[in-house]
Design a protein that fits this description.
- The protein is built from 18 helices and 18 strands.
- The chain folds into three domains: 2-240, P-loop containing nucleotide triphosphate hydrolases (Rossmann fold), CATH 3.40.50.300; 241-291; 320-394 and 434-524, 3-Layer(aba) Sandwich (Rossmann fold).
- Strand 17 (500-505) and strand 18 form a beta hairpin.
- The protein has helices at residues 40-48, 81-86, 90-103, 110-125, 131-141, 158-170, 188-200, 212-218, 237-272, 279-291, 351-361, 388-391, 398-403, 411-420, 437-451, 467-479, 491-497, 516-524, and strands at residues 2-11, 14-24, 29-34, 55-60, 66-68, 176-180, 204-208, 221-226, 229-234, 320-327, 331-338, 343-348, 369-374, 380-383, 455-459, 483-487, 500-505, 508-512.
- The strands form four sheets. A six-stranded mixed beta sheet has the order 5-6-7-3-8-9, with helices on both faces. Strands 14-15-16-12-17-18 form a six-stranded mixed beta sheet, with helices on both faces. A three-stranded antiparallel beta sheet has the order 2-1-4, with no helix packed on it.
- By secondary structure, the protein is α/β, with parallel strands linked by helices.
């Protein structure tokens, strides 16, 4: 069992967490969540011993082993792929190396023989004789083919290195497994394999992830980092989210009723305190007022933008017809028709395929062949994966920037839209050219909401967004009544928004009226 006892950590005046007391037990998976900068990854580093807290301590039961998903992709460049995986079990590799060094000695002594026997016994206890086989099985499952197992890590690309480091963390059945964003750079099939692996994992797992579908699948508990505290809740991410929203509403309602009652009591006391016939009632109400508690309810440090797409013009019968669309190197003879109420999730092996399709649909690129026909009532808003053209070198502040896309140029009106996207006060006067990736995305969403289009196209809208903004975007797209084309690596977004899936793969097209989860089930069979 892993225990956190009175742990406190702060940097300068910024307090990350204080007096944290938690127990992480076998058979459970804990998701660590919190606003950006709350200290989620830092907390994992405290658990692993990489960072020492100012107060308190972390303890792991004797003889239990912890494994950590390494973030430095280049730290094993001089090692072979297979050995890198086995290095996840440090003691096993130490025994293996010492054993091999002894057997390689030209003057092998009786004392060496005794030591070798001890090492062989320890090696067997750690299941060392199956180590290479188990490491190979993990690599194969993570789509690292056998011809790469004895290559140097330096010869692998970044996505392959991530998979090897994940295999390293999983190797040897650790007692405690710490994973920081384990689904990054994994395709949907590999993510599903990892979900199944972790759901069958019998020891302790602690995860930081922005992937809500993943957290919902694997987590038995949620640890919420907020206001310098870490509180543990039973259940997955969705259960935590619904519960936290309900508790917040209940607390606000309770406070509202208490404030109303306090006002009534104060008015009665002020009116009748000097009235002899009412003095006993006034005294009684004073006592009630003293006992009345209005909780100092703090809203979460999390900030959820308000995302709500509404269109101005009703959709007619003709929406979008694509026939025989071809672009060399991307797709060939692509044909589909969009009907009313359809929100289509588009999938392809290469993201550039879909970006090219969207650019053609929006008139930014000409196809080699085929035709596109938009209905007369259709207005389109497009969220491109690369939004640099809107921001690079732009000297406008955000109010001025948003004004370009609005019929109403009144500053307070524009500030209202920016406020919905968490740009309030001086934030709204920042230069567009200095925005972070997530801030640019929120500006693009504000632009699209202002445009009031009845057909939306999204190319990876969750890139750069935090969990709170992704949740708000999910709610906004689910509630939208118009038509949509959507591509995203966020499985929860695709599954809850889309009611039809089109996959473009070489010259073949998968096109079914199914949810994203149903599509994954079908292609996995």
């Amino acid at each position: 069992m892993l225990q956190v006892n009175g742990v406190s950590l702060q940097y300068g005046s910024k307090k990350l967490f204080e007096d944290v007391n938690l127990k992480f037990t076998k058979g459970n998976c804990y998701g660590i969540i919190g606003a950006n900068g709350a200290g989620k990854s830092t907390f994992l580093k405290v658990l692993s011993g990489e960072i020492e807290p100012q107060k308190g301590f972390v303890s792991l039961d004797k003889n239990e082993r912890m494994s950590v998903l390494q973030q430095n992709q280049n730290m094993y460049d001089d090692e072979t792929v297979l050995r890198t995986v086995m290095m996840g079990y440090k003691r096993l590799v130490e025994v293996m190396d010492e054993k091999d060094a002894l057997y390689a000695k030209a003057d092998f002594s009786e004392e060496d023989g005794i030591r070798a026997a001890d090492l062989e016994s320890e090696f067997a206890e750690m299941n060392g004789y199956d180590a290479e086989y188990q490491a190979g099985q993990l690599l194969n499952a993570l789509d690292i083919s056998e011809d790469l197992h004895y290559c140097l890590m330096a010869d692998l690309d970044a996505k392959q290195k991530v998979r090897v480091l994940l295999a390293q963390a999983l190797f040897g059945d650790p007692d405690v497994l710490l994973l920081d964003e384990p689904t990054n750079n994994l395709d949907i099939k590999t993510v599903r394999w990892l979900e199944n692996y972790l759901m069958d994992f019998e020891n302790t797992i602690i995860i930081v992830s922005h992937n809500r579908h993943f957290l919902n699948k694997v987590c038995t508990n949620i640890c919420d980092v907020d206001f310098g505290k870490i509180n543990m809740f039973v259940g997955n991410y969705d259960f935590w989210y619904q519960t936290s929203q309900l508790l917040a509403r209940q607390q606000r309602d309770q406070n509202k009723k208490a404030e109303q009652r306090a006002k009534e009591l104060q008015e009665f006391i002020a009116r009748f305190a000097a009235n002899a016939s009412k003095s006993r009632q006034a005294t009684s109400r004073k006592k009630e007022l003293e006992k009345l508690t209005i909780n100092d309810f703090k809203p979460s440090l999390r900030k959820y933008p308000f995302i709500n797409f509404k269109y101005e013009r009703e959709i007619g019968h003709d929406i979008l017809m694509v026939e025989g669309l071809t672009k060399k190197g991307y797709f060939e003879d692509l044909t589909f028709t969009v009907q009313r109420d359809e929100k289509i999730g588009l999938v392809a092996d290469k993201s550039t395929t879909l970006t090219m399709l969207y650019d053609i649909l929006c008139g930014k690129v000409e196809p080699d062949a085929g035709s596109i026909r938009w209905g007369k009532t259709i207005s389109v808003s497009y969220f491109p994966q690369n939004n640099n053209e809107y921001f690079e070198g732009c000297e406008l502040n955000l109010v001025e920037w948003l004004s370009q896309f609005s019929n109403d140029h009144y500053e307070e009106y524009l500030r209202g839209w920016l406020g919905r996207m968490l740009f309030s006060g001086e934030e709204a006067l920042k230069k567009a050219k200095v925005l972070s990736g997530g801030e640019k995305v929120r500006c693009m969403l504000a632009k699209m909401m202002l445009e009031g289009s009845n057909f939306l196209i999204f190319d990876e809208p969750t890139n750069h967004l935090d969990l709170e903004s992704i949740t708000a975007l999910n709610d906004g797209l689910s509630a939208y009544k118009g038509c949509m084309l959507l591509t995203s690596h966020d499985q929860e977004l695709m599954n809850t928004v889309c009611n039809r899936i089109i996959e473009i793969k070489d010259t073949k097209v998968y096109d079914r009226q199914v949810s994203y989860d149903e599509y994954i089930d079908e292609i996995s069979q």
